[in-house]
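Protocol step 4 of 5: obtain the predicted structure for the target chain.
Materials: sequence only (see below). No template structures provided, no constraints applied. The aim of this step is simply to have a reference model before the mutagenesis design in step 5. Sequence pasted as it appears in the construct record:
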Amino acid sequence: MTKAAGEDLDQDSVSTEADALRRIAHELEMLDPRVASYLSGFALILARVANADLDICDEETRRIESIIVECACLPETQAVLVVEIAKHRSRLADVAGTYDVTRRFRLNANRAQCRELLQCLYSVAGADGRVSAHEAAQIEQVAGELGFGRQELDTIQSGCEQRRGYVRSLILEDCVPSPA
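Step 4 output (structure tokens):
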């Protein structure tokens, strides 16, 4: 049986994409293990909130990618792979697993980093122009897991709203941590 010319092109394309993914994965493996662990937890918690309403829309995905590029100073290709892995993990994770990720994040992050994460959660939740009740509840849950009370969370939320109105059109720079 012979292959059509189009099949060879498709196979070459798949092979090229696979090689690119391997290269990007290798680059991510070269990150300092502490940085990789922090980044993994950060991205997974962002995806957890985006998936709270059981739908991670394109706008939320792009917002998470932008945050990862900005926060971790990763190239976009690496950020895309990190986000896709986080989205997949968030869809498969159970409640205990997501709590464990947040608990580990809290142990490895300082208070300012936890606050920045919460600001980013509002940015992700509002990326599609609205924050669903499920997303808001998930942010509140994460805040509690990070040791923030209701009053502190209200202050963080209010800060995001005052800067640009996260429900209408959050501008990423307003709620993203600056690179260290």
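Step 4 remarks: Confidence is low (pLDDT under 50) at residues 162-180. The two ends are 58 Å apart (CA to CA).
Proceed to step 5.
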